[in-house]
Hints:
Helices cover 31% and strands 21% of the residues.
Amino acid sequence: MVNDAHTPTFENLHRERRTFKPAVGFAVHANARAYEYKKAGVDRLEYWREAAMRLAWHRPFTEILDWTDAPFARWFYDGTLNACDNAVDRHVREGRGDRVAFHFEGEPGDTQTLTYADMHERVQRAANGLASLGVRMGDRVAIYLPQIPEAVVAMLACARIGAIHSVVFGGFSAESLRQRIDDAEAKLVITADGGNRRGAHLALKPLVDEALAAGDHHPEECASVKNVLVVRRTGQDTAWTEGRDLWWHDVVDPQPADHEPVWVPAEHPLFILYTSGTTGTPKGLFHSTGGYLAGAAHTHRMVFDLKPETDVYWCTADVGWITGHSYIVYGPMTNGATQVLYEGTPDTPHRGRWWEIVEKYGVTIFYTAPTAIRTFMKWGEAIPDGYDLGSLRLLGSVGEPINPEAWMWHRRVIGGDRCPVVDTWWQTETGAIMISPLPGVTATKPGSAMTPMPGISVDVVDDAGVPVGPGEAGYLVITEPWPSMLRGIWADPVRYGRTYWNRFDGMYFAGDGAKKDVDGDLWLLGRIDDVMNVSGHRLTTTEIEHALVSHPWVAEAAVVGAQDEVTGQAVVAFVIVRQDADAVPTDGDEVAAALREHVRHEIGALARPRTILVVSEVPKTRSGKIMRRLLRDVAERRPVGDVTTLADSSVMDAIRDGLAAGTKD
Ligand code: PRX
C-alpha cells in the first residue's frame, strides 16, 4: 500500500524505530570510514584540501579558502585545472582508456558502448568544433538536448575550452528556454532535431526556433546567439535558418581528435543552471570549477562507495538537472565510473524497462527519486520480481523527502534486503550531497537523511537563528562554507546575498524545514517557502501564477502544492475568470483543459497543473496576501483551518460551494 503521508510527519517520526546497521561484509570494503567525521571535525579545511588533492591539477593550489568577502567564497583559488581533463583525459593518460564510460541505451533500443578513450576522442573533436564557431573561454553555451551521449560530450567540450554551459532540461518550453538564453546571453545553442519519448518523436529544434524568434512576449530576437548546432537524433524534418543553423556532424566530425584543454583558475565558472526561486524569474545559479569538482567527486566516491573497476553505476536523473550534472557527468566521470545512460521513460515499451536495464548491464549502484519508487510501488512488485536484480549492492534516493514506506519498499523489493539505502539531501545550490548516511558506516533509519557529510556543518534553527532542541522542527541552515557551494546568481550578486545569506546572520538558509530527532539525526520536512516539489522537480507557485494570468481569460490565479500519492506534490490552481473576456467557455473543465495547455506552452509539461478550479474569489488577508494555507486545505480535501485573518471570511464558503457544484480534477 502506498501511504498518503509522503513527508514524514511528526507522528510517524516518533513511531519510526527501525534501524539498519551496516552489514559487516559491506563495511570492511567500504570507501567511507567512521574516522572521517572526526578528521573533518578536527580540521575541516585540511579535510577538504585532501579531497581536492585527489583531482588532477595543472598548477596545484596552495590556498584552501578565502572567506574574507563572505558570502562570496573562493576555494583552492591559486590552482588551475580543467574539468574535462579530470573527467576524461586523466583516465586515458593513466591507462584506463579501455574502461567503459557509458553503456548508452536509447529509448527505441539502440545502444552504444563508449569507453573513456572514445569519450576522449569525442570531446576533443567537439571542443575543436566549438572553437571553430568562435566559442571562447567565458562564453556561454545553452544546451537543450535529450539524454544522449552528445549531451555529456557537449557539456565536457564546453568545460574543455573554458566556456560556461547552461543546460536547459528538454521538457522546458520555448519560452522558458528563451528566458534562460537571454539571461545568460548565450552565444551558441546546442540542440537536436528531437528525442524519443514514450515511443514518439519529441521535437526540440522547432522550440529553439520559437525561442530565438521575435514573438508576443519579446519583440526582439535573442541577439546574443550566433549559431545553433543541431544533433541528428530522430531524423525528423527540421526547418533551417541558413547561416545560423549547423549540423553537429558537419561541424564536429571532421575536426581533429586532438585538443589541449584550456587550464582555468579554480574559481572559473564551470556552468550556470537555472532553478526556480521564490519569485517568478528563474535564478541562474553558477558553480566554480575546482571546488565544485572536488565536492562532486568526493561525495560520489563516499556516498556511492564507488569501486570503479567493478561497479556499474546508474543515476536515472536527466543531465538537465543538477543531479545529472554532479552525479552523471562530473562526479562519476572524475572517479572513472562505468555508467548506464538511458534516454527514455520507465514505462516504454513496458513497465519493466528499468529492471531489464539493471539486469542487462549488471547495475550495482542505483540512484533514483522517491517519485519513481512510489510509481513502481503502485505498479506492483511483480514487475521488478520478474528480473534478476541480484547485481545491485547500493541504492540511493534524491529529490524530495522519501516516506518510510517507499524507503522500505526500495530496500526490500529492489535491493533484496541486502543493499544499503542512502537518502541524500542536497540542492542545485549546494552542488553536491550535504546530508546522507555513509554506506558501511551509518546505521540508517527509513525516511531520514541522517547526518551531514564529513566537512559539512548543518544545523536546524528557530526563527531567531538559535539551534532547536532534539525533537523540534525548524529551518535547515548550513553554517560554514563548503567547496561546491554556488558562487552566485548570474549577473545578480545582490539577489544572491539576499536570497541565501540574509535570513540568518552568516548562515546559508536552504529553504527547507527539518527536524532533529533525539539521536541528532535529521528528517527533512519539505520546503517552507513557495517552492513546490513535483516529482522531484522544483517549481514555484509564482511562476505558474504568472503563466496563468498571461492567458486572456484569467483575471487572477493562486497556485498551491497539494500532497500527491505519486508525485509528492502536485500543482493545484485556483483561477478567477475575467468577466469581460470574450468567448470563455461556461464549462469549467473546458477552461481547465485550455489553461493546462497554456501552462505547458509557457513553462513546460512539468508545470502543468494537475487540477484547475474555477472560483469566484481567492482567500486573502486584509493586507491582500493570498492565504495559500487555506487553499491547500481545500486542495487536499481537509477541513479548512482558521479563517479569522481573512478579509472576507465568506470566501471559503463560496469556494467550497463552487467545488461541491461541480469542477473536478
Ligand atoms: O526541498 C529539498 C528537496 O529538493 C530541493 C532542491 O531541489 P533541486 O535544487 O531541484 O535539487 C534536487 C536534487 C538535488 C531541496 O531544497 N530535496 C532534495 N533532496 C531531498 C530533498 N528533500 C528531502 N530529502 C531529500 N533527500
